[in-house]
Amino acid sequence: MNRRSLFHCWGRHIVLLVVGGCVSPDSRITRVRIADSLDLDLHPPETFGQKISVLQHVEVHHSDRIFETLVQLEISPEWVTLVGFTTMGVRTFTVRWSGEELFSESSDGNDMPFDPKYIMADLQLALWPKNFIKDTLQIQETLGAASSREVMRAGVPVVRISYEKTPAWRGHIKLQNLERDYRLEIHPLRINK
Fold this sequence. Notes:
Elements: H1 3-6, E1 23-26, E2 31-35, E3 38-41, E4 52-62, E5 65-75, E6 80-85, E7 91-97, E8 102-106, H2 116-127, H3 130-133, E9 138-142, E10 148-153, E11 156-163, E12 173-177, E13 182-191
Antiparallel strand pairs: 1-8, 2-3, 4-5, 4-13, 5-6, 6-7, 7-8, 9-10, 10-11, 11-12, 12-13
């Protein structure tokens, strides 16, 4: 897979942005539409409840295509930061969420292939404690050896997430948006102290 094809799709989240190395804040993003008539309120970083730093291999499955990237995820009480890299280690994008402002930046004139608010929404759906996201969404969880989480609309799942380990970010995570026809597979490569 060449470097250019790596960044051409993220399900329906593709946007026609050319940020060419500029930082673009959108301070009004707090609610994200994750499915028809279903919104997630983004929560501030401190609600995650811990600090983490992990390098991940992310696969995006959409239609018959698979796209891969490396992502460094950092969560602290002040920021959630995601930095994307090619498989060769070249930085391609940075997304930061302060709880009030969402910043996105692409490197070396690369187009940002997705809207960063959807990254934050998927991240919070997968990792945030249930008590924060259940305020606006119907959540069904199973805990144990095969832990999972489903986001429901009128009793029907629209997003399915399965976990390999607890805490979730330490293991393989599969997130499937059933309505938007995409799947993420997230594999931790290195957990930083």
